[in-house]
Amino acid sequence: MDERKILLIKIGGSVFDKFTLFLSFIKKLYYEENYKIVLLHGGGNEISYWMKKLGIEPKFIKGRRVTDKETLKIVEMVLSGNVQGKIIADIKREGLKVVGVNGKSIFHCKKLIIDDIDLGYVGEVTRVETLPIEKLLENSYIVVTSSLGIDEEGNSYNINADSAALSLGVSLRVNRLIFCTDVPGIIVSEDGGERVLSKVSIEEARELITTGKVTGGMIPKVEAAITAIENGVDIVQIWGGSDFEKAWNMEEGTVFTNKK
Fold first, then answer.
1. Quick one: CA torsion of 239, 245, 249, 251, rounded to 10 degrees?
2. Residue among 82, 84, 96 at smallest CA distance from 25
């Protein structure tokens, strides 16, 4: 694309319930700042809800959902149906041009193996087909896509949404990537209390992982942020508030930089 002014927002957790609060500011970025906008969503909470409703207990290993065939059916139903449909409807109500893209149209992947553990139908992105998204952005559409992928044999896979956002952000050469999540940023214990780190270098972020100061689902986010910065994304944030303007102005959340 000729103009590298692209914002990628990864939406997860309870952020779906706050999404309508974001839209007025997204509309401002779209019209006044001429940003091209891509939204990538997971749907972890709703997937777990439907799994339990159908008698399947969710299981996670190193922040990734173990996904057998039955779970994959639920993942596809939730991501491509319920979640994406709601996001598109909310955006359309604001009068914005929007198109939903199934992640399987753009994410090529292979089976993900972590420490010789078989997670089932969990994928690792090997290539992103960006042309369909680039064409939509050039025609002023907001693009909404999901964290699903497909391999060369046509098998479908569930992809960790943070990892999918990383791959998409780097491939599209976005200049800003914001992970919207349930927590306000990276939280560390300090002097008997807790505080949110407003800014970290990639070296400091690596140390937070190796020393165990970030754990669970925060690890894929921090790893994705590090890799994104190393691969040319200008600004990466982890944020979990309700006023998107504060995230945009870097008043909330954790910002990753390439400097110490």
1. -60
2. 96
- Amino acid 86 reads K
Q: How many helices (H) and strands (E) does the chain have?
A: 9, 16
* CA–CA dist 94, 185 (Å, integer): 28
Rg over alpha carbons for the chain, rounded to the nearest Å, is: 18
Q: Is the pLDDT of residue 4 over 80?
A: no
Q: What is the set of domains in the chain, with CATH numbers?
A: 6-257 (3.40.1160.10)
Measured between its terminal Cα atoms, the distance across the chain in Å is 31
Residues 6+ apart with CB under 8 A from 185: 196, 197, 198, 237, 238, 239, 240, 252, 253, 254
Helix, strand or coil for residue 49?
helix
Span 188-216, average pLDDT? 85
If residue 11 lies in a helix (H) or strand (E), which one and from where to where? strand 6-11
Q: How confident is the model at residue 20 (pLDDT cuts 50, 70, 90)?
A: confident
Two tokens, residue 166 = 């990383």
- Of the pLDDT bands very low, low, confident and very high (cuts 50, 70, 90), residue 241 is confident
Enter the tokens of residue 156: 């479908």
Q: Give the integer Cα–Cα distance in Å for 208 and 224.
A: 14
Which one-letter DSSP state was computed for residue 225? H
